[in-house]
Design brief:
Layout lengths: L2 H14 L3 E3 L11 E3 L1 H19 L5 E3 L8 H7 L1 H4 L1 E6 L6 E3 H27 L5 H7 L1 H22 L3 H10 L16 E4 L2 E5 L7 E5 L4 H5 L2 H7 L6 E10 L14 E11 L4 H17 L8 E5 L9 E9 L2 E12 L1 H10 L5 E3 L4 E3 L2 E8 H12 E5 L5 E5 L10 E5 L6 H12 L5 E3 L5 H11 L3 E5 L1 H6 L1 E6 L5 E5 L3 H9 L2 H7 L2
Helix pairs in contact: 2-13, 3-12, 5-7, 5-8, 7-8
Keywords: Aminoacyl-tRNA synthetase, ATP-binding, Cytoplasm, Ligase, Nucleotide-binding, Protein biosynthesis
Protein name: Glycine--tRNA ligase
Function: Catalyzes the attachment of glycine to tRNA(Gly).
């Protein structure tokens, strides 16, 4: 199965089982906008809870806020978004389609990486167990040729983007022979900048209305509340402020399902530190955030760091946590050392003094900031794609199972009466009523028990609890485990403890505080 085929299956599965729907689908949808269905919202909320608790419960110096989406327009002037929040765009004159110029180049580079992997795969098949990958990629003439072109293009792209050389960006596209995916031609316009912020009007009349923006990130709501939180919470440096909220970007290249959308959700934490200590904290959060991802158990080798060569205007260090999606390694989280840019800019534009008084040293200073920023929707896609598994069983049957970490699974347990009579549904309903105060559980009595198991596998339910006639005799039920499909007999009275231990976040958190 190719990556493209797998990706199509993920999209189809997410819709069929109520995870994600195209927004306004009855009106043919809205490009790059999606709705989370009944199971999708549960998975999404569980992901957010895992992040929120890891930040605010595991750290006694991090607190949370929920800032408004609308902010004073000067906020975005101070942050640089009005003047510098741009993407380099290019149009194909034949297809009339618009693209991000840097993404076209990145896609070309990714294709070179794919070519290298194909050469490696062919060689591995030819040489078998004797194959030495490192030796092959460092000595094979064809691989070296592809790699040289790839590295040269990457170096040139970094150079022209850092210099904001739009003519150089177009020249590189032409030099690489990049064609429009729709028309197949190289008939390109010049590259120009496009601001990504959505604007609207606030006010009762058109004449009296003022322009405001839908926030393109949640971080600025934290920065403008720095003094409010620090003073009312009596916070001492170093400390952090966390926030989960919606953000909006008028992405031209919105693609790959929910990976890049125009309306999305962010989980951001801004950690305020004493100047001169920011790189120490940058490394701390770099390691902690990677541990948070790897604790989910999807495989350490599927994550990697990607250090930025082109730094944002506010940063002196930046790295991404990348995950190997079905369409390659892509960013799921960014860790940035933002210096004192944000607080200094807001102090300048507001005319207010935004500093921290250190009672131990007796000095006042503008704190530096280390940021962790993760997209909820990208994290959802990462978890969903990692969990999706097609299995062929020993009896020849096949099943699709979503191997969600139990703590993130939308439905924690399903209670299934073996038949719809003889008092079994009543026992099953009582079990549901006992569990539902603590967990999201489902009751299902339709179809054969085998089909019901398959349905629960397909939505990632960790435990299926089957009530049968023996349950009436001795007060026991059968628990079936999703991943192993093994079954065990347990007492009904023990179910609350068993389910709690299985789906608790505690085992994940234990990996982070060792």
């Amino acid at each position: 199965m190719t990556q493209e085929e797998l990706f199509k299956k993920l999209i189809a599965h997410s819709k069929e089982y109520g995870f994600i729907f195209p927004s306004s689908e009855i009106y043919d949808g809205l490009s790059a906008v999606y709705d989370y269905g009944q199971l999708g919202v549960e998975l999404k909320n569980n992901i957010k809870r895992y992040w929120w608790d890891a930040m605010t419960k595991l750290h006694d110096n991090i607190v949370g806020i929920d800032a408004a989406i609308f902010m004073h327009p000067k906020t975005w002037e101070a942050s640089g978004h009005v003047g510098a929040f741009n993407d380099p765009l290019i149009d194909n004159k034949d297809s009339k389609k618009r693209y991000r110029a840097d993404v076209l180049i990145e896609d070309w580079i990714a294709k070179q990486d794919e070519k290298i992997e194909k050469e490696v795969a062919k060689a591995a098949k030819r040489f078998g167990e004797a194959f030495d990958r490192e030796q092959f990629v460092t000595t094979n003439a064809r691989v070296l040729e592809i790699k040289a072109k790839r590295d040269a293009a990457h170096e040139k792209m970094t150079e022209v983007l850092n210099a904001n050389d739009l003519a150089g960006v177009k020249a590189l596209i032409e030099e690489l022979g990049i064609v429009c995916p729709i028309s197949g031609t190289k008939n390109w316009t010049d590259v120009r900048q496009f601001n990504l912020m959505f604007s609207t009007q606030m006010g009762s009349t058109a004449d009296g209305a003022s322009i405001v923006y839908l926030r393109p990130e949640t971080a600025q709501g934290i920065f403008v509340n720095f003094l409010n939180v620090q003073k009312t919470g009596r916070m001492k440096i170093p400390f952090g402020i966390a926030q989960i909220g919606k953000a909006f970007r008028n992405e031209i290249v919105a693609r790959q399902f929910i990976f890049r959308m125009r309306e999305f959700e962010q989980m951001e934490m801004q950690f305020f530190v004493k100047p001169g200590t920011e790189m120490q904290w940058f490394e701390h959060w770099r390691q902690f955030r990677m541990s948070w991802h790897r604790a989910l158990g999807f495989g350490d080798d599927r994550y990697r760091f990607h250090d930025h060569e082109k730094l944002a205007h506010y940063a002196n260090a930046a790295t991404d946590v990348e995950y190997e999606f079905p369409f390659g390694f892509k960013e799921v989280e960014g860790i940035h050392s933002r210096t004192d840019f944000d607080l200094s800019q807001h102090a300048k534009f507001s005319g207010k003094k935004i500093q921290y008084f250190d009672t131990e040293s007796g000095e006042s200073y503008t704190p530096y900031v280390v940021e962790t920023s993760i997209g909820v929707d990208r994290m959802f896609l990462q978890v969903f794609s990692a969990a999706y598994t097609e299995e062929k069983l020993e009896n020849g049957e096949e099943r699709v199972v979503m191997r969600f970490p139990a703590a993130l699974a939308p439905v924690k347990a399903a209670v299934l009466p073996l038949v719809k009579k003889d008092g079994l549904p009543e026992v099953a309903r009582k079990i549901v009523n006992d569990l539902k105060f603590d967990h999201y559980v489902q009751y299902d009595e339709k179809d054969s028990i085998g089909k019901r198991y398959r349905r629960q596998d397909a939505i990632g339910t960790p435990l299926c609890i089957t009530v049968d006639h023996q349950s009436l005799e001795d007060g026991t039920v059968t628990i079936r485990h999703r991943d192993s499909m093994q079954q065990e007999r347990v007492k009904i009275a023990e179910l609350p403890g068993i389910v709690h231990d299985m789906v608790s976040l505690r085992p994940l958190f234990a990996k982070l505080v060792r």
